[in-house]
Queue: 2 jobs
Job 1
Amino acid sequence: MSMGGPMQTMPHMGGMPEQQPGQPDQQAMAQSGAAFRINSANVLKLMYGRTISSISSGIAAGVLGLTGIQGILFYFLSCLMVTGALVAKTKAKPQLYLTNSWKATILDGVFDRTMILPYLLFWTFAYALCHIY
């Protein structure tokens, strides 16, 4: 499975045949496992995309010479743009790709240290290279 490919849709559980009481539903268990693997792969793709956008927006903020509150507002603006792109990419139906769909699409990564720290690192690095040295 390629990490750079498109997000995969979750399998649907509808149209299942009736099962005997006390018997495990093998098809439902297989679909549940497949859904977990697809969700995990999609969450990783979402995280990689957010990390790359965090790094690139940090570089952009540093090159533009943003400092203080301007740089922080630029971070939130870039997060908003990434979220908008994700909503557009999923055609406003992230539940087809992620189990905790709207939370993962909108909130995860915005206040997470795995997204803020690369932004800060590349923001200060690019600012130092362009405006101090």
Job 2
Amino acid sequence: RVRIYWPTEKEWFSGRVMKCNKVTGEHQVKYDDGDKEWLDLEAEKVQWLGDGLQSPSVVSKSGKSDSKKKR
């Protein structure tokens, strides 16, 4: 579980890391509201939550088909 800070909303949003793309280094986050986005977690303000942590599955370059949320 993670929380991602959205500076434009001045709010934290919770979700799960579902996949990791080894080519781009991005992770797919599925938010609690069902939305998904690919993020470079090193460039985001992230809080890692202890419960329910699992290793995300690794995807190829083609796994980047989900749309990104706009910030």
